[in-house]
Amino acid sequence: MQCFIPLYSIIFINMMHLKPLLLAIIILLSTNIILAQDVIGGEISYSHVSSTTYNITSIIYSKTSMGINHTGTPTVLWNDITKWENTYFHTFSGPSPNSYNISYLDSFRIANITNIPNSFSEKIELQSELIINPFQGVNNSPTFQFNPSNISVSGGNIIYNPNVIETDGDSLFFDIIPASVTNYNFPIGATINSNSGIYTMPFSQGKHTIAIKVEEWRNGFFIGFVIQEMTIDTDFITSLHEATLFNKQMIIFPNPTSGNFTITQLEEFAGGGILEITNLMGQVVFSQTINASILTIHLASQPKGIYLVKINSDKENVIQKVVLE
Predict the structure, then answer these.
(1) How, if at all, do strands 21-30 and 98-109 pair?
(2) Cα angle: 57, vertex 60, 64; to 5 degrees
(3) What are phi and psi of 235, to 5 degrees?
(4) Which candidate, 89, 70, 83, 100, places its Cα nearest to that of 42?
(5) Mean pLDDT for the chain?
(6) I need a surface site. Which of 8, 137, 303, 322 has the fewest CB within 10 A?
(7) Comparing C-alpha atoms, which of 94, 39, 95, 101 is closest to residue 72?
(8) Of 184, 181, 163, 159, which is closest to residue 172 (Cα–Cα)?
């Protein structure tokens, strides 16, 4: 049986003064959320448009096999997962600098999550924080390139690399935090690398919900965060072999570069993977079939800026950033 979760609305509320900053909150919530119990995670991010106008993107991940529709554009992923994406434009008002908390409330989570008691009765509330400070410049949030469909197992551990892209050149700090529920238990043995964001936990059968928080820092000042919540379902992990990809990511050097650089450790993808390089507008500036473990790339004719190096294969998808200067 299919059911539909109606369009979400935006509510803007001025809350209180937080030291010199004005704290405000945007809540994106359903006007009539029904009892869907298929949600396994999500995230909310933002990008600068002009002045104090921002593009806010909310993503919900659901179980495809449950056949429940959510608001937004659906994309069917691996491992019985569908991504639902919504985009909103909002102009922030008030004195500057301002701190804004952005929240997105959706329906209920799937049942039988091992570390969330009565998970079927717990809604998901996604959060991020945006600080608009003209003295620090334009602020775009980090974005997660990977999601619950990109889980692997290596050496008896569940491994997840969120592969976060940060286009402003800010410093990132990764942490694991409680999910947005009444009662939460951290998975036993869970750890995260605070610099790379790679999450590791001992393999354990069942459904496990995690929340990864990514803080942005610029010139020593905190300027915002994003959070990705996701449920790892070991019944749908498709790669139970030794996933050397997560231990041996492709290496790009020199980076930053004047235009010519080398990519190594591509043997995982030789003979079937496609290497693609795009600018931040999504335009493809280079594409090649991977036929060796080392490739030399020439982009000197391209404008200076940030580019995304992507590998697409039937094994994994990988994204890294390269800077032309």
Answers:
(1) parallel
(2) 140
(3) -70, -20
(4) 83
(5) 82
(6) 303
(7) 39
(8) 163
Asked whether residue 229 falls in the same domain as residue 82, the answer is yes
C-alpha–C-alpha distance, residues 40 and 82, integer Å: 10
Residue 207 belongs to some domain of the structure: yes
Dump pLDDT digits (tens) for 149-188: 778 777 778 888 888 989 898 999 999 999 999 999 999 9
Q: Are residues 154 and 220 in the same domain?
A: yes
Per-residue pLDDT of 39-73, as tens digits, reads 999 999 999 999 899 999 999 999 988 899 998 99
Q: In angstroms, what CA-CA distances link 180 with 22, 170, 313?
A: 24, 26, 34
Residue among 111, 125, 65, 59 nearest 88 (CA): 59
Question: Same structural domain for residues 204 and 255?
Answer: no
Secondary structure of residue 110 in the 3-state scheme: coil
The SS3 of residue 79 is coil
In the chain, the amino acid numbered 12 is F
Are 80 and 222 in a shared domain?
A: yes
- pLDDT at residue 322 tops 90: no
Cβ atoms within 10 Å, residue 27: 16
User: For residue 252, what pLDDT is reported?
Assistant: 84
Domain span at residue 318?
A: 248-324
Q: Could you give the CA distance from residue 237 to residue 2 in angstroms, rounded to a whole number?
A: 26
Pairing label, strands 37-50, 98-109: parallel
User: Is 148 found in the same domain as 187?
Assistant: yes
Are 71 and 57 contacting, i.e. CB atoms less than 8 angstroms apart?
no
Q: Find tokens 């928080």 and name the residue.
A: 213
